[in-house]
Specification:
The complex is a heterodimer of chains A (329) and B (244). Chain A is built from four helices and 18 strands. Chain A is α+β, with helices and mostly antiparallel strands and 329 residues long. Chain A has a seven-stranded mixed β-barrel with strand order 10-17-14-15-12-11-18. Chain B has 244 residues and is of the alpha+beta class. In chain B, a hairpin with a 6-residue loop joins strand 7 and strand 8. The chains are: A alpha+beta (329), B alpha+beta (244). Chains A and B meet through strand 13, strand 16 and helix 4 of A and strand 4 and strand 5 of B.
């Protein structure tokens, strides 16, 4: 099956679960900025959770599928397109992402996944390195994607509900006959969140200022990191620091005192002091912030951060089973 | 928070809630880089799928793990992960063993050809001025030293090299360049390095190598690995142009 990219949108990239095992060569993990929405989109499309899909940023694409196929869109909400539920795209019809009403990044999963060549074991796009994904770059108008050939769960006849539902139509509400994911199961997405953090190696010099200030996401943010602005949270005094490992979520403080929250395309090593680390279960919330959105930080102990990860995994397991039953029985 | 499981054993520190850093020794310890490299390789092999990535750098190993997949037991996932890692950390006495040499092929020496100065090394004059030397003397000094790869990072295949002669230590540029050409050889503070792909960068660029330090299709994709030794050899513009 092919997907014609009639319009690419502002920045649409192919992402799978990420390129693990490559950081020793200086290659970042990449993968989805919002792993929760990405995994749930795959579940709803009837896929294993790590199949390649599209990450769509702020302005959405227009896509045409060569065959009838089940798809799902999760994460940011676009007008004219119901999210967090299985959808059915008809062959030849154009799927249009309207205006982005909420959040910043949406994930489109297609039954059977997007089939681009694996580079270093992954289909994720790493833009700065120009590798992976579709020719190492974001999609452009007119691109043609192969899809649906990956080992997906079979798409049963009739798919969602009894008969395939027409994808486009005057009233998207038609889809509400099928099921959707309850917001109670989602991260606390919001445009001015309090993001939970654990202490970083150089917390002492910066932590209090980080915890008490309000910050805004600047326009210089990308998949590598969210650059924040706010009251400068202090300057590092002790000369140049030895470089050390960083991870997605690490909050670095460069000399100007404006923190940077590293995200999916974070490099493997950084030389700036590390004030804190955003906890893993709150990374989806950060991924959905737009330039101009405000945020605050609140400390939690490491034990609690890890407990939240286990809890999230248990909830996803319940969701997975529920989706499986509704799709395939 | 820093944790030690055994007296004189490695020190563990959390790096957020899904990674930790094991410190095997200081930069001054002999063979600490090759021990870090071997330990990282062992952890990736033995502790999958809990361990997703293990990155050796500066006598430490950063271990990226999945707290939901760490072996069951008492304590938090972080504490359990530390206990699982501890037996695989190579300590000083193991250094002499054949096992390490087999595991890592550490101490591999790589020669990097460099065409110095001109448009390939736009900061050579500035580095010379800063050191109070002639450009020729800078090239001679830079090429005479032997360097050790302390870490790969910043960008795919980028080596942080120790061993830069003290005279050549040059502070990073105040305003980083928007685009540093692939292959650029530079000086950042007390370290030397090579930009494998075109990226922004703030180091002083003194030359360029035709050698490709990063190929996504190779295994491993980075020509250099932590613990490797590096020597630079001067080549002419003609040799650079003819390089395949």
């Amino acid at each position: 099956m092919e997907i014609t990219v009639a319009r690419a949108g502002m920045m649409t990239t192919v992402q799978d679960a990420g390129r693990s095992g490559c950081r020793a060569s200086g290659v970042p993990l990449s993968g989805p900025m919002d792993p929760f929405a990405f995994r749930v989109a795959n579940m709803l499309a009837g896929n294993p959770e790590d199949l390649a899909g599209l990450e769509i940023t702020l302005s959405g694409p227009e896509l045409e599928f060569s065959q009838d196929v089940r798809i799902a869109v999760c994460g940011a909400e676009f007008s004219g397109l119901p999210s967090w539920r299985p959808l059915f795209a008809r062959a030849g019809e154009r799927v249009r992402f309207g205006e982005c009403r909420k959040g910043c990044r949406a994930y489109l999963a297609v039954a059977g996944g997007i089939s681009v060549p694996r580079v270093m074991g992954s289909r994720s796009t790493y833009l700065r390195g120009g590798l992976g994904g579709f020719r190492g770059r974001a999609l452009r108008d007119g691109d043609l994607l192969e899809a649906g050939s990956d080992t997906a769960a079979p798409v049963p006849a009739g798919s969602v509900g009894s008969a395939p539902r027409k994808f486009e139509g005057p009233a998207p509400r038609k889809f509400e006959g099928s099921f959707f994911v309850s917001p109670f199961l989602m991260p606390a997405y919001c445009a001015s969140p309090i993001v939970r953090v654990v202490r970083g190696a150089q917390a002492g010099e910066f932590f209090e200022a980080l915890g008490s200030g309000e910050f805004r996401v600047t326009a210089h943010s990308d998949r590598m990191g969210l650059r924040l602005s706010g009251g400068a949270i202090g300057r590092h005094s002790g000369g140049e620091l030895a470089s050390s490992a960083v991870a997605p979520g690490t909050i670095q403080v460069p000399p100007d005192g404006q923190p940077i929250v590293l995200m999916a395309d974070a490099q493997s090593i950084g030389g700036y002091p590390q004030a804190a680390h955003a906890i893993t279960v709150d990374l989806p919330i950060l991924a959905q912030l737009r330039p101009g959105d405000a945020l605050r930080f609140r400390e939690v102990p490491l034990d609690e951060a890890q407990h939240e990860i286990l809890k999230r995994e248990r909830e996803l397991a319940v969701l997975r089973e529920g989706v499986r039953q509704r799709l395939f029985s | 928070m820093r944790v030690r499981i055994k007296r004189k054993g490695p020190v563990f520190a959390p790096l957020g809630d899904s990674a930790l850093v094991v410190t095997l020794g200081t930069d001054a310890d002999r063979d600490v880089l090759s021990r870090a490299r071997s330990t990282a390789m062992a952890l990736e092999k033995i502790l999958r799928p809990a361990v997703r990535d293990a990155v050796p750098a500066y006598g430490t190993v950063a271990v990226f793990y999945d707290p939901a997949r760490v072996a069951e037991g008492p304590g938090s996932p972080f504490e359990r992960m530390c206990r699982a890692i501890e037996p695989h950390c190579l300590r000083a006495p193991v250094v002499a063993s054949r096992r390490l040499r087999r595991l890592s092929a550490a101490g591999r020496k790589v020669e990097i050809p460099v065409c110095y100065g001109g448009e390939m090394g736009p900061d050579l004059e500035a580095v010379a001025a800063c050191a109070g030397l002639s450009p020729e003397a800078v090239v001679a000094l830079y090429g005479a030293a032997e360097y050790v790869v302390q870490a790969i990072g910043f960008s795919p295949g980028f080596p942080y090299l120790a061993g830069l002669p003290k005279k050549l230590h040059t502070p990073r540029k105040d305003t980083p360049r928007e685009n540093v050409a692939a292959g650029s050889v530079g000086i950042g503070g007390a370290q030397a390095g090579v930009y494998p792909i075109a990226t922004p960068g703030g180091w002083n660029l003194i030359g360029r190598t035709p050698l490709r330090l990063f190929r996504a299709e190779d295994t491993p994709p980075s020509l250099l690995q932590t613990g490797d030794r590096v020597q630079f050899r001067a080549i002419t513009k003609e040799e650079f142009a003819a390089w395949k």
